[in-house]
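Board work, copied verbatim: Aminotransferase class V-fold PLP-dependent enzyme
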Amino acid sequence: MPDNTLRARDEAFWQTFADRYDVQPGPINLENGYFGRMSRTVIDEYQRNIELINRSNSVHVRQRFEQFESVSIREHLADLLRVPAEAVAFTRCASDGLQALIRNYNGLQPGDQVLLCDLEYDTVKSAMRWLARHRGVEVIEIEHVHPASFETLLASYREAFEQYPRLKLMALTHVTHRTGLVMPVQAIAHAAREHGIDVILDGAHALGQIEFDLDELGIEFAGYNLHKWIGGPLTLGFIYIAPQRLASIDPDMGEFHFPPTDIRCRTPYSTPNIPALLTLPLVFEEHRAMGGAAAKGARLNYLRNLWVNAVRKVPGIEVMTPDDPRLYCAISSVRFTHEADQQLLVERLLKDYNLFTVARSGSACGPCIRITPGLTSTARDMRLLAQALIDLS
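↓ predict structure ↓
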């Protein structure tokens, strides 16, 4: 197998993959963290499945999809994750799955404490705060010091675990959506387990660009997207519950379409996007053909480093994401220290340099500009970005 680090620099090689995607003329998209593109072949397959289900309607769905195809697709997903099929259930997105896990977690009593940090996704924050109103628990919110390191991140959680002995549940984000900081999940989960604290992991941005093994990470509850770095259609995500912990999550609002021993009753029952689900086997096949998360992650990290290394020491620019390879991925963020309103610089990047980025706020380290290359991005794009940032500084 070729060295992914060396291949990440091969523009001609990655252009062969970029050519499989249709790209609208216009700004250079450096906001690929929102959702990913489908390849041309995936779009064709998706369209065929839309037409198939529209033609055959409930006849195909009742006779084939519900009885056979949905089972096979679930097995494809489980194989990708290297987990049992009974450990996963499809949702519309990571947020839906995480909300279901949080609201149906049954290990809390009034007076218990739950933990979140400033870098959590807002939907996760609101769901954890919902527990305070409806379960009588106390929400503990911590802020991470900036700049962060592996040691300071782990220390923040160890200190919280010692300071708040009634903690029973915590939210943890694998890749934070604001700054792109990658959390040391395995170390934090191990420390949490030592204190009897369960972890619900937000993996929305991780799947497809970071290699991981859920058993090795020590994660028993998680929610993921399939429309970011895997390349699936929108409206697809899933939850993971370790089989031995299924009883810790109640059926969703008394859901009865599946037996209590089936993870699928832990999410709301509804008519899913069947054509999108039917497209997933091809999506997984193409993901593997590109080299999977190892190859994608190496390429995206290489592109990230091109612009970060060029501006890291430039006066007036602060890169918010560390350079420790354990703590970054494609997503990284930057802040112009001379400007309070980062949105003004987002608009300048678009107007003056044709670069599309997005402002993010809400973390303790302050507002920033999130920059996310994708699989259609090139080294030239990164050099253009670096020069634009230097100009604006």
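Residues 270 and 295 are 36 Å apart (CA to CA).
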